[in-house]
User: Fold this.
Amino acid sequence: MHRNHLVDLFSDTKSKPTPGMRRFMMSVEVGDEQKDEDQNVLDLCERVADLLGKEAAVFLPSGTMCNEIALAVHCRPGDEIIVHESAHIMVSETGGPAALAGVMVRGVQGTRGIFDGATLRSAIRPESRYLQQTRLVSVEQTANLGGGAVWPLATMQEVVSVARDAGLILHMDGARLLNAAVASGLSAKDYAGPFDSAWLDLSKGLGGPVGGVLAGTRAFIHEAWRLKQRWGGAMRQSGFLAAAGIYALDHHVERLAEDHDNARALAKGLAALPGLCLTYDAIDTNIVFFDVAGTGRTAEAIVNALKDKGVIMGGGGLFGPTTIRAVTHLGVSRADIDVAIAALRDIVAG
Ligand SMILES: *Cc1c(COP(=O)(O)O)cnc(C)c1O
Assistant:
C-alpha cells in the first residue's frame, strides 16, 4: 500500500529545498551574475573559496560542469588524467573529458574508490615522445561508488605528495566534501587546501535545488568563467539559486551528521535481514550499498517491490545486477529509515 509520503533513498540529489530555504531564496535581491551584479552569487563564491582555501570560485549549474570545466582549463588535448576507476568523471559524465577537454582518462584501482601514493606513482607515464602526458590526478571526496568512503587525510597527503613530485595538477571532486568534513571532524580546507581546484555540490546533501561551486586560483577561475560562457553555463539572476547555497552552508552542514547516523541505522537494520549483506563493512557517511544475491532475486526486482511500498532505492545498472544503493539526506527521517527496513523485511520474507 502506498503511503502518501515516499521514502526516497535513491540519491541525496532527491533532497528538496526546505521551507526555510525556499523563503530565503525568494527573499533575496538579484542581479545579472554575468555582470557580477548578483550579490548572492558573489557572496556564495567568496564563502566557498574561503571554505576550500582558494582565492576565488565560480558558481556553475552542476557538479558535472565543475569537473568538466576544471579538466578543460587544466589540461590540453591528448593529456591523460588519473582517477579511481569508479570515479564519477570516469563512469557518469558521458565521456565528457574526451569530448570536451580531449583528455584520456586512466582509471586506477583501490579499495572503496580510494587509491594510494604508490598506485598513483606507478600510473604516471614516463617522459617520452611516444606517450601521452600525465597531467592531472583527481580524487573524489567522499567516494560515491566506494559507498561514501572518506579518504583518510594521510592517504590523500600521500597522493598529493606523489602528484607534486611528478608535477601533476591536483583536482578534487568534492561533491560530498562536507560529508567527509562532518564525518571526520576535519575541515573542508584540511582536505581541499593542497588541491589546485576543488568544488562542492549544492544539490546533494546540502539540499539546494541545483548547482556546484568550483574554486581555485584567480587565474584558474578567470579561465573557468570563459568556458562557463562558452558552454552555455552562464546564467542571469541566479542569485535565487545561490541564496539556496548560502542558506545550506548556514543551516545544512552540521546536520549532515544525522544523515550519517541514519545511514548507519539503515545498514544495521538491513544487514540483519536474511539474504541481504552490506557491500562495505563501514558506513563512513550517507551512502549504503548492499547485495541481494542471497535472496535469489535481482536488485531490480527488489527495487520494484520496494517502490510498491513507497520506498525508493537505486539498483542494478552501474551498481551491478544484485547491488542496491540507498542514500540518506535531509528529506529522510529516522522514522523513514524504520519504514525502509520494515519494507525490506516484508520483501525478503515473502
Ligand atoms: C553527483 C556527483 C557529481 C555530479 O554532480 P551534479 O551536480 O549531479 O552534476 C560529480 N561527482 C560526484 C562524486 C557526484 O556524486
Summary: The chain has a mean pLDDT of 97. The first helix runs from residue 19 to 27. The chain has two domains: 7-15+255-349, 19-251.
